[in-house]
Design goal:
single chain; alpha+beta; elongated
Length: 243
């Protein structure tokens, strides 16, 4: 019975040692797992950074991207007109600022005269610049309209067309002429016998007449069109005399 009691007293010591060994083993395993995890995580971070470094940047992608298609001509024309108007506004603001400074420097009775003359000159210059911009834009769209007008004018004399068709063509022709007049465009005729002028005439044929000088106009096929300031839109098409 005494031996049994001794063994019973020693058994808790053995149990404590086993528990300590188990805890130590578990702690060691946990540390190994954490170390391995750090290593694996470190590899993943490095691999991710390497992969990101290999990926092209947005600037590189944009550099190799295909060129954009050219803008539509109408869009380019609108942008050009907008830029021209902005430039004109800038010049006008600069001129008005300079004139205001002059008026402040010159007081009294001279102020009104100083104010009026530069403003008139600036307004006239502004109107001329606007007219030039508008004329430039018209120059791109008017030749097709002139060609359409001449074609309709030629079809108005078609004897095979019905009366309704001739009336419709006549109304369209009158409408186009009215639009041209509002835009400051006039029609001019080439007279038979007058000298050929390459600025306003376009030779499209030849004829032989003994009663006309060499190089004189024999016939007009289509009238010419020009702005009221003399700028030619479409020259008159004529035939010339060759002797």
């Amino acid at each position: 019975m005494a031996k049994t009691k001794v063994l019973a007293k020693k058994s808790p010591v053995v149990s404590d040692k086993k528990e300590t060994q188990v805890k130590s083993s578990a702690s060691t395993s946990k540390k190994r797992i954490e170390t391995d995890t750090r290593k694996v995580t470190g590899r993943r971070v490095v691999q991710t950074e390497i992969r990101k470094a290999d990926e092209p940047t947005l600037a590189e992608v944009g550099a190799v991207s295909p060129a954009r298609p050219e803008k539509d001509p109408l869009v380019r024309a609108e942008q050009g007109l907008k830029s021209a108007i902005e430039a004109l506004n800038l010049h006008m603001n600069t001129a008005l600022g300079a004139m205001t400074e002059i008026v402040h420097l010159r007081g009294g009775q001279e102020a009104s005269a100083v104010r009026a003359a530069p403003l008139d000159r600036a307004s006239a210059a502004f109107r001329r610049l606007i007219a030039d911009v508008v004329d430039h834009q018209f120059a791109e769209i008017l030749p097709p309209l002139v060609a359409l007008r001449n074609e309709i004018a030629g079809n108005c004399a078609d004897s095979n067309a019905s009366e309704g068709e001739r009336e419709l063509r006549t109304r369209v022709l009158e409408t186009l002429d009215h639009v041209f007049a509002l835009a400051g465009i006039e029609c001019y005729e080439a007279r038979v016998g007058e000298s050929f002028d390459s600025l306003i005439h376009l030779a499209v044929g030849e004829a032989h007449r003994s009663d006309l000088a060499n190089g004189a106009i024999v016939e007009q096929f289509q009238p010419g069109f020009r702005f009221v300031n003399g700028r030619i839109i479409s020259p008159a098409k004529v035939s010339l005399n060759r002797r």
